[in-house]
Amino acid sequence: MKKLFVSAIVAMFMLAVSLFSFAADPVELRFIWYDDGEEGAVMRDLLDRFEKANPDIKVVMDMVAYKTILEQLPIQVEAGEGPDIARVTNMAVMTCDYLDLRPYLKDAQYYEDNFPPASLQVFRCDDDTSALHGFPMQFTVTGPYINRTLFEQAGIEVPSDAKSDVTWAEWTDVTKNVAEATQTPYAISIDRSGHRVAGPALSTGASFFDADGNWTIDSEGFRSFAEIIKGWHDAGITPKEVWLGSGDSYAQAGDYFVNAELVMYMSGSWNIGRFTNDIGDAFDWDVVPNPTGPGGSTGLPGGASIAAFASTKHPEEVARVMEYLIQEDVVAEFSARTLFIPGQLAVAKAGVEYVTDLPAAKSALNGYLSEIPKLQESAFQLFYNPVARVYYGESVNRLTQWMLGELSLDDAIARIQQALDEAIANK
Q1: Full-model pTM
Q2: Is residue 4 within 8 Å of residue 34, measured between CB atoms?
Q3: Torsion from C-alpha of 57, 62, 68, 69, nearest 10 degrees
Q4: Tally of CB atoms within 10 A around 391
Q5: What are the pLDDT digits (tens) for 377-426?
Q6: Tally of CB atoms within 10 A around 52
Q7: Domains of the chain
Q8: 219 closest CA partner among 198, 248, 194, 188
Q9: What angle do CA 39, 43, 48 make, to 5 degrees?
């Protein structure tokens, strides 16, 4: 009888412990996220699975505008009021505010081995070479889209089908001819974005850094592509609202392309998901190689990363989420469903079975993948530079003022350089 009584007491104790464990509130982590398309829903689905396997952690996704990530997040982080985790593109702005995950990871070597060194180094503070703070969830690359159906209707061959070294001047001429033959409103356009302009400028011979790594904007190549963009506006072959009607804000020409009002659109791989959904089978579209020139054929890398912040009160739980997100099956599914180029090296090497019935989407993804080996070292240097954001904003604002007749090109270039010099001095 005594033994039965003791057993009953033990059973009741274990039940109480179990009930207490289930009753305890899970640790809540804030994950700030912005969407390019619908990838937030995919991430939420993946996190739901994580929470099911890890009931002691709840990840709350705060959906915000991209502008919030750029402008408000760094301020919040500096004030110690940042989230636990965030999707970011301005990694270098917040160095020294990230959480070093290495002490909390089960397999730090796996983490380190599966991402390009530069994509990890950009998070690190000062001379640190070992901390692990974040990782690229997906890569992007800039490059042009074409409406292939319009070329077919015009009876004009797509020049990159016959040769690989098509220049911007050649593309300008041929898209103008296609637009005229098909009565399409616009021939060619590029997003109002310093990031988007940088690759073409490099291809026309721009050099953004001197031999010592110092910013230098004034080059024949930079001037050359600036003249090309202005020429599109002067000739009326590009939608002026994108560059000249959007104030100092970022603007894209994707709507014109989706509506078959634009023959060629210089943007990037992040639009594949949108075009897959919005264009469907309305017309055939394709990705063509970046135009070539004195600087070769190159786009600009980009992409969003996931970062953990030192202000978190739950570093171990944050590390568990981050370690989950870098696993091959998780990255592969995220990439497949969002139509992004994976940032995880093992997944990129293995390839991705993209979830789309449209051959155009798969062709476009493969087209952008083929651009990555062509990217110049200067392109990576620019993307990961801590004051790149200053260049992006200043370049489009000053070039817009030049095209509106408010500045000379000399003055526009001088002001871009001045802003960069001041930003570096004030770091």
Answers
A1: 0.74
A2: no
A3: 30
A4: 23
A5: 788 889 888 889 899 999 999 999 999 999 999 999 999 999 999 999 98
A6: 8
A7: 25-139+302-350 (3.40.190.10), 141-301+373-425 (3.40.190.10)
A8: 198
A9: 145
